[in-house]
Amino acid sequence: MARWLGLILALAAFSNLSEAYRFLVIFPLPGKSHNILGSNVVNHLLQAGHEVTFVTPFPVKNPHPNLQQLDVSSNFELMKEEFMNVTALLNNEISFNNPIMMFQFTNDLFAKTVENPNVAKVLGDTNQKFDAVIAEWMYNDAYSGIATIFDCPFIWLSTIDPHWIILSLIDESTNPAYVPDSLSSSIPPFNFKQRVSGLLLQLVASAFKTLYWNGVVEGEVRRLIGPYLVQRGKPIPPFLEVSHNASLVLGNSHVSLGQSIRLPQNYKPIAGYHINPKVAPLPEDLKKLLDNAKNGLIYFSMGSNLKSKDLPDDLKQGILKIFRDLKQTVLWKFEEAIPNLPKNVHIVQWAPQHSILAHPNCILFITHGGLLSTTETVHFGKPIIGIPVFGDQFVNIERAVSRGFAIKVPLSYTMLDEFKAAIDEAISNPKYKNKVKELSEIYHDRPVPPSKELVHWVEHVVRTGGAPHLRSPALNVPCYQKYYLDLLAVIAAIILVLVVALKLSLRVLRCNKKQNLKKKKN
Ligand SMILES: *[C@@H]1O[C@H](CO)[C@@H](O)[C@H](O)[C@H]1NC(C)=O
């Protein structure tokens, strides 16, 4: 009898496990690498048997039957062409490290996404129900308000190494004494100056966020999300209640790629989930090229946003001259044809990066160092030359250098000599290759593949009603309690009382002495 009961319970548990859920997944940023991360979240959930509504600027034709796409390709209107132009970057005409500009852009993106008629239709449909909302975190907390509409758990996906701002949404900020900002290239241990500038950056940015920016975002959430709450007869909660309500952060990070930092229980590092463990076979022509590359092949790609054709002509010719003198074959992802190409240089407009990096004859990857590219180099164990251009690429490359599998070459008009020296060093010195192989082993040595972990934790959040047990108690502890400022105040008060008491008693004692003396004289 007991055995039957056990079996029935097990079956019930199993049928519960394989229940299909409905997810709203939001990746509004019109950038290819962001779409790779978003569409792979969607694919893993679909493969696990769930239904997904996907807010995306890159809708595909003939989608999976359980996938509904909400086309937000009009978000491309926000991406200015010069954002991604190499020559403009070389001339210092634009800077990506301007936080105000970035924050403003993220707010425009939120408004444009939510106001998109395709999205508005779903948000305004009171028959829609979701088991969880998953959204990309890009320096804007507003998306958490969308889960409030559907009264369901909310999950962030952070595309970068754990950033102190997102950690402060589920736990607390990291300590700037030993954790750099994701956009800084300093690497601990820090000297005095680095520690102080890290602290200043964090203090100024926190003050800006809490005193000013959160108010702006709250206004936008009220304006854009409020009406949907009113429509459903719900009150509009204070914004902090919404933005501090995330159940989980899925992080596109891993210790083998970034830093070993302390993480709360509801932060799950799942870097590499976008890479299919079964690498697609190479197209025939590329396969031949790689198979025949006796001295190895160097793969050169500046990612999907930066167009190599925006490179100034002098640089282009100089790079070609360097490649011509190499024994190795070079595969350059470049958007335009080049006349008089050296015999060992091959241009492709499109490159199956994973399949190329997976080939044993690929010996070096020259990259801008976007997070996906540095993940892929460690996944496939290939050393790199990094030419960072903006955003987190600088710190990605800096870390790869400090970990010993990369050489950095700053983008400039005079980079050619350094570029040549870097290629020679990377090819002739085996230490870069050995180091990346070692890290690759650490990266792959996990109890389950990252895609399995992604699905598991998302389902766990739904199964446990928002996973309140994973939440950090730090979230509800005010600053003065965290740093024991109240205790400090008590101690200061006691010391004050003691000092005053001591002074008073000394004075009384002195007075008494004087009186005694007077009495004696008399
Ligand atoms: C907070 O999250 C829970 C689920 O974890 C959800 O039911 C609730 O509506 C959320 N509250 C707000 C204010 O968003």
Q: How would you characterize this protein structure?
A:
This protein has helices at residues 2-17, 32-47, 86-90, 99-115, 117-123, 144-150, 164-170, 192-224, 226-231, 239-243, 284-291, 313-324, 353-358, 371-380, 393-402, 416-428, 431-444, 450-463, 479-482, 485-521, and strands spanning 22-26, 51-56, 67-71, 132-137, 154-158, 248-251, 267-269, 297-301, 329-333, 345-348, 362-367, 384-386, 406-408. With 522 residues, it is an alpha/beta fold. It has three domains: 17-275 and 449-476, Glycogen Phosphorylase B (Rossmann fold, 3-Layer(aba) Sandwich), CATH 3.40.50; 284-444, 3-Layer(aba) Sandwich (Rossmann fold); 482-521. The strands form two sheets. The protein has a seven-stranded parallel β-sheet with strand order 3-2-1-4-5-6-7, sandwiched between helices. It has a six-stranded parallel β-sheet with strand order 10-9-8-11-12-13, sandwiched between helices. The radius of gyration is 29 Å and the shape is globular. 2-acetamido-2-deoxy-beta-D-glucopyranose binds next to helix 6 and helix 10. 2-acetamido-2-deoxy-beta-D-glucopyranose binds at residues 147-148, 151-153, 237, 241-242, 245, 247, 466.
